[in-house]
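User: For my dataset I need records formatted as: sequence, then structure tokens, nothing else. Please produce one.
Assistant:
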Amino acid sequence: MLKDKTIEAIKRILGNQAVKAEASKTFALPEQASQIPELVKLALREKFKILPLGNQTRIDLSKFSENDTLFLKMSRLSRIKKIVPQDLYAVVEPGLNLKELNSHLSPHNLFYPLSLDNSSESVGGSVAVGLSGNASGKEVHTKELVLALEIVNSSGEILKTGAEVFKSVTGYDTSRLLVGSWGTLGIITSVSLRVFPLNRKKEFEDLKFLSLSFPQRKEGNNPKVNLDRRIKKLLDPDGVFVDLF
């Protein structure tokens, strides 16, 4: 668990009811995206790490230190910010469940394809792990469906990447870099997603999620791992976010 003085400082930002201790771990549940920059700045001052969490469907928390990690549950950030049917996109907060997203899209004759009726994945979690699946013989990947992101970086700044209009590619590669980063490069506070007309739903009826394994720390001269580490060092030089690589 984090130090008492650190927990008290977190409570001053979020409120007493938004900080919980479970099995010697410290969990925080922000309700507003505006609270997160202050948490990151506190982490910089107090030298603890932050691990953002979705619905914890693919992560084993036992692998992380209890003494210097704040587990940031994003479930209360679950609002629909806007749905734009004419441009086929929606902007939502990361804690929204994918199944709930489709219940909001349906009245607009829209749907988001990477969702199953029995799925408990959150939008932010699906982006963080790079969720993908197979449908009608084609791979469907979150990277192709994320148009823009709003994140809080390791300095506590709010940054926007990408563009909401699908035809625009300005900054789009930066968004793609964050997809599948497992929360190690920033905290997602808003996601702009490409959505589809309901008349295309048959194309995704046989959707099956591809298996995802939790990143394992690898030693040695692995080019992919070395690149991940360089990106991590560049974007998080002070190590505010948990390092999985």
